[in-house]
UniProtKB/TrEMBL annotation:
<keyword id="KW-1133">Transmembrane helix</keyword>
<dbReference type="InterPro" id="IPR024791">
    <property type="entry name" value="Cyt_c/ubiquinol_Oxase_su3"/>
</dbReference>
<feature type="transmembrane region" description="Helical">
    <location>
        <begin position="84"/>
        <end position="106"/>
    </location>
</feature>
<keyword id="KW-0472">Membrane</keyword>
<dbReference type="GO" id="GO:0004129">
    <property type="term" value="F:cytochrome-c oxidase activity"/>
</dbReference>
<feature type="transmembrane region" description="Helical">
    <location>
        <begin position="171"/>
        <end position="189"/>
    </location>
</feature>
<dbReference type="InterPro" id="IPR035973">
    <property type="entry name" value="Cyt_c_oxidase_su3-like_sf"/>
</dbReference>
<dbReference type="Pfam" id="PF00510">
    <property type="entry name" value="COX3"/>
</dbReference>
<dbReference type="GO" id="GO:0019646">
    <property type="term" value="P:aerobic electron transport chain"/>
</dbReference>
<feature type="transmembrane region" description="Helical">
    <location>
        <begin position="16"/>
        <end position="38"/>
    </location>
</feature>
<dbReference type="InterPro" id="IPR000298">
    <property type="entry name" value="Cyt_c_oxidase-like_su3"/>
</dbReference>
<dbReference type="InterPro" id="IPR013833">
    <property type="entry name" value="Cyt_c_oxidase_su3_a-hlx"/>
</dbReference>
<comment type="similarity">
    <text>Belongs to the cytochrome c oxidase subunit 3 family.</text>
</comment>
<feature type="domain" description="Heme-copper oxidase subunit III family profile">
    <location>
        <begin position="1"/>
        <end position="190"/>
    </location>
</feature>
<feature type="transmembrane region" description="Helical">
    <location>
        <begin position="50"/>
        <end position="72"/>
    </location>
</feature>
<protein>
    <submittedName>
        <fullName>Cytochrome oxidase subunit III</fullName>
    </submittedName>
</protein>
<feature type="transmembrane region" description="Helical">
    <location>
        <begin position="126"/>
        <end position="150"/>
    </location>
</feature>
Length: 190
């Protein structure tokens, strides 16, 4: 086996492992949203609950962050180091902005009088908190991946012939984006 064949097999293996990991994460969220659907028949369910405005903003922010990560990957593939740096930093800022918008959304829920636990909590808002916080936990993993990608980028590890790390990072980031859009639309329309 040549070094090129080994490198190609290694890349395919890593991508397949990431696909399995993302599928298992999606199944966890499918279970949570299924439990949400089943719980809507409870007598204490809030039928008039409206998602906070900050969740709409955070959705736009995370979609934009996927665009910037894609631009960073393309810049790295084209040996545009300064362009990749700019887009990676923009992705990092947007990722942090997403988390900040999520927590601002939680404060809007609390300002409406709904808490995670206690007498002011409801099963409806508890589901919203749990699902959102579990997604944020996965996004923190995505931010760590992004920081590793940025570190490797500054170490000049990505170029037109070596993009595996940034490709894997982008795949995971896009997955987190698609997952949040699914969750947002689910909560918004269901």
């Amino acid at each position: 086996m040549t070094a090129e064949e080994y490198s190609e097999r290694n890349a395919k293996s890593k991508k397949m492992l990431l696909w399995f990991a993302m599928a298992s994460m999606f199944m966890m969220f499918a279970g949570l949203t299924s439990a949400y659907v089943v719980s809507t028949s409870r007598p204490d369910w809030l039928n008039d609950f409206v998602l906070p405005q900050a969740f709409m903003i955070s959705t736009a922010v995370i979609v934009l962050s996927s665009v910037t990560f894609h631009m960073a990957k393309n810049a790295a593939k084209n040996n545009n180091h300064s362009g990749a740096t700019m887009w990676l930093m923009a992705t990092l800022a947007l990722g942090i902005g997403f988390v900040a918008a999520q927590f601002y959304g939680f404060s809007q829920v609390v300002a409406s009088g709904y808490y995670f636990t206690g007498p002011e909590s409801t099963v409806t808002t508890s589901f919203l908190y749990i699902v959102s916080l579990v997604h944020i936990a996965h996004l923190f993993a995505g931010l760590i991946v992004l920081l590793v990608v940025i570190y490797n980028h500054f170490k000049q590890k990505y170029n037109s012939s070596q993009t595996l790390g940034i490709e894997l990072g982008a795949m995971f980031w896009h997955f987190l984006d698609i997952l949040w859009v699914y969750l947002f639309l689910f909560f918004y329309f269901y």
